[in-house]
Design goal:
With 187 residues, the chain is mostly beta strands. The protein has two domains: 30 residues; 150 residues. Strands 1, 2, 3, 4, 5, 6, 7, 8 and 9 form a nine-stranded antiparallel sheet that branches. Strand 8 and strand 9 form a beta hairpin. The longest helix has 26 residues. The termini are far apart.
Length: 187
């Protein structure tokens, strides 16, 4: 009998905890005061003969990058961030600095929506255009942070669609791009 009472007490405690956790689980993602877009992406180029995998000098530029973006909007205030990791591969041995991995953190301080360009994955849709940010590079050596005026590489059309969905790009063997966009409106 004593064992049965202990089991019932334990079950009661578990049930009370479950109710508490389910209440907080319902709150997750609810009651948001701003719109949020979450974006996962990956791009890989592993064909040394594909025009998509050649650098500006016509040499193979193999590897890829992966990461996520978050874009947030509350009225006219727009902000976001991104975490991106890239890795380069050499063909035929290469020289120093031609291969390896690096990571960057993007703190987006201003963006707007604009029309997708013909090369963007959602022709006819809208894209995120980045207007200002700071970027921190983590690679070989100590992390370094720069403003968008110092390193303007990420300004303008991000190539990231604003419409939720899955976008895939497979123009040639060994070349692949995927973007997944999720959207949660403010409540």
């Amino acid at each position: 009998m004593k064992t049965l009472l202990l089991v019932l007490a334990a079950l009661g405690a578990v049930a009370a905890l479950a109710v508490g956790f389910s209440s907080s689980a319902k709150a997750y993602g609810g009651g948001a005061t701003h719109d949020t877009w979450q974006v996962g992406l990956s791009f890989n180029c592993n064909s040394p003969t594909s025009a998509y995998c050649l650098d500006q000098n016509g040499q193979p530029s193999l590897g890829g990058f992966w990461g996520w973006f978050e874009f947030d909007r509350s009225g006219t205030q727009m902000w976001g961030d991104a975490q991106l990791t890239g890795c380069g591969h050499t063909t035929g041995g290469g020289g120093p600095g031609l291969a390896g991995a690096g990571q960057l953190s993007l703190d987006i301080t201003a963006w707007h929506l604009g029309p997708a360009q013909p090369q963007d994955p959602n022709a006819g849709g809208q894209e995120f255009y980045i207007d200002a940010y700071s970027v921190t590079f983590n690679g070989h050596g100590s992390p370094q942070t720069f403003t968008s005026q110092q390193v303007p590489d990420f300004l303008g059309d991000s190539g990231v669609p604003a419409e939720p969905g899955h976008y895939a790009f497979h123009p040639a063997p060994g070349v692949s791009g995927n973007v997944q966009v999720a959207y949660r409106a403010a409540n």
